[in-house]
Design a protein that fits this description.
The chain is an alpha/beta fold and 84 residues long. It has a domain of 32 residues. 40% of the residues lie in helices and 19% in strands. It contains four helices and three strands, in the order βααβααβ. The protein has a three-stranded parallel sheet. It is globular, with a radius of gyration of 14 Å. One of its GO terms (molecular function) is metal ion binding.
Length: 84
């Protein structure tokens, strides 16, 4: 049995959504290190894994949904961000 193909998604999020109006545009960009660390860990164990970084690629949520519909994966992981 072959190992599943994994897709990890980091959806786009605006600075206003990430930092709220209190900080807004003065906040910086975030690199989704957790997603990339997880991808490296999984890949080292012999699984096929891709990362879809919506923010880095400038994708909209609709464009990401379109790519998800391609269905070239068996397992989907979606990262979320919270302002806490």
């Amino acid at each position: 049995m072959s190992k599943p193909k994994i897709l990890l998604v980091y959806p786009p999020i605006t600075k206003l959504e990430r930092y709220s109006s209190a900080i807004g545009a003065s906040g910086g960009e975030q690199i989704p290190l957790g997603v990339y660390y997880l991808a490296a860990y999984v890949r080292e164990r012999g699984y096929g894994v891709d990362v879809l970084d919506g923010e880095a690629l400038g994708l909209t949520n609709q464009q990401i949904i379109g790519r998800l519909r391609d269905g070239r994966f068996n397992v989907l992981g979606i990262s979320t961000t919270s302002v806490a």
